[in-house]
Structure formats: structure tokens, C-alpha cells
Write a structure and sequence with these properties.
Length: 236
């Protein structure tokens, strides 16, 4: 069965058939929709499945927006307005869930002190090892004194002098004087038995550095000696 023409809707026979734009046309019916100029397969232009000549072909108009300073300003303003909600939430929650703390020198000093205090366990082990090195000398006295029964009568008399060499050994435990003198710039209360307390302005003598955060010395005012934080004193 022969198809119908796309324009006159009449039967199109094979000898006069033009197959284009998904339709069949008579050669005379294949013309421009506007000016009715007869077209062929070389000069036609299709739009919405309708043939047009080059002069009457519908053109799609595009709107070009120039990137002018005003448009750039509007773009920047829109971008800034998109952050209004975020800033409003920030101002509402400011100071509620969190607080901004300035990293002042005083806070840095406190932070460093806390880090040093966290090393107390290390210094305790250090002191235990230090006392453990002297410990063999104490058990040797009873071990060497194998004659406990004949010396029992003398132990009563020698019981008092025996602590004296132990105390002398304890007094000799501090490191030898290095001649360094330090002045305390803060008050410090000893947090452990092996530490020493001092006040602002005290002179620390016989100072020996143990590590980056701690040193060993004697307070000239009180005569007490022990470990102290190095960031609490300045060298004279």
C-alpha cells in the first residue's frame, strides 16, 4: 500500500516519492512552509519535521548574559547571602557549646607544666632506680654480719651509729655542685616527696640539669634540696 503525502495527504506513488523528515512527500509538495519554494534533499532544512528554506528556517535565540561588574557584584552578593544562615547559627552557638581560648604565653606555660607533671611517673622510676643503686650497700651490712648471735650484744650499742652512715650516704646522694645559681620566678609547692618547694625570688644553688623539664638543686633560704621544674626558675 502506497503511503500518504505529508502535506496534501494524498497517495504518493514511487515515481514521485520523496522520503524525508520521517514522512513521504510529493516532489511538488516538498516545499518551504513559508514561501512555498520547492526544495530538494540538498537545500532543505528541517524543523519540527517540517521543511524550510535557508531564508525562513526558524532560528533559536539564545540570551547571552555578559559578565559585567554589576553581574559579578550580584554573584558575589548571592554567595555571601548563602552564608547568612551559617553565620547566624555560629553567633547563636557562640560561647555555648565551646569557647575560643587565646593561646597566650601564660597558657603555653601552663600547658608545658602539665606535660611535665605527666612525666612524674618517669621521675619516680628514676628515683627508684637511683635508690636501688644504693640499696645493695644496705643489705650487705646484715649479710656480711653473719655472726648475728655473738654480735647481738653489740647491736644494742651499734644500733644508734649505724643510721649515721646511712644518713651521710643520703646526704651525699645529691649531685655535686656545678656552681650554677638560679632565681625562682614563680612560687612552687612540691607535688612529691622528692621535690622541693620554694617562693618567688628564692635562690636555688647546686643546680644540676636532669632533663629538659626538671633539675636538681638546693633552696638557699630553707636549705631543702630536691627536684624542681626548670621553667619556674631563671639562671642568675
Amino acid at each position: 500500500m502506497n503511503p500518504l503525502c505529508g502535506r496534501c495527504n494524498q497517495v504518493v506513488y514511487p515515481t514521485e516519492k520523496v522520503n524525508c523528515l520521517d514522512k513521504y512527500w510529493h516532489k511538488g509538495c516538498f516545499s518551504c512552509e513559508i514561501c512555498k519554494m520547492t526544495l530538494n534533499m540538498k537545500n532543505y532544512k528541517g524543523f519540527d519535521k517540517r521543511p524550510y528554506c535557508n531564508a525562513h528556517y526558524p532560528k533559536t535565540n539564545f540570551t547571552c548574559v555578559a559578565d559585567t561588574p554589576e553581574n559579578l557584584r550580584l554573584k558575589q552578593q548571592t554567595k555571601m547571602q548563602s552564608q547568612v544562615h551559617y553565620k547566624e547559627d555560629f553567633e547563636k552557638n557562640k560561647g555555648k557549646g565551646f569557647s575560643v581560648v587565646a593561646d597566650t604565653p601564660e597558657l603555653q606555660r601552663i600547658k608545658k607544666t602539665q606535660d611535665q607533671i605527666s612525666n612524674i611517673k618517669y621521675h619516680e622510676d628514676f628515683e627508684k632506680m637511683k635508690t636501688g643503686a644504693d640499696a645493695p650497700y644496705q643489705p650487705t651490712t646484715p649479710n656480711q654480719g653473719s655472726y648475728q648471735q655473738p654480735a647481738a650484744s653489740q647491736n644494742y650499742h651499734h644500733y644508734e651509729p649505724t643510721p649515721e652512715p646511712v644518713r651521710q650516704a643520703a646526704a651525699a646522694a645529691p649531685p655535686p655542685s656545678s656552681g650554677k645559681r638560679y632565681r625562682a620566678v614563680y612560687d612552687y609547692n612540691a607535688a612529691d616527696d622528692d621535690e622541693v618547694s620554694f617562693m618567688d625570688g628564692d635562690i636555688i644553688v647546686d643546680v644540676q640539669q636532669i632533663d629538659e623539664g626538671w633539675m636538681y638543686g638546693r633552696v638557699e633560704r630553707t636549705g631543702q634540696q630536691g627536684m624542681l621544674p626548670s621553667n619556674y626558675v631563671d639562671q642568675c
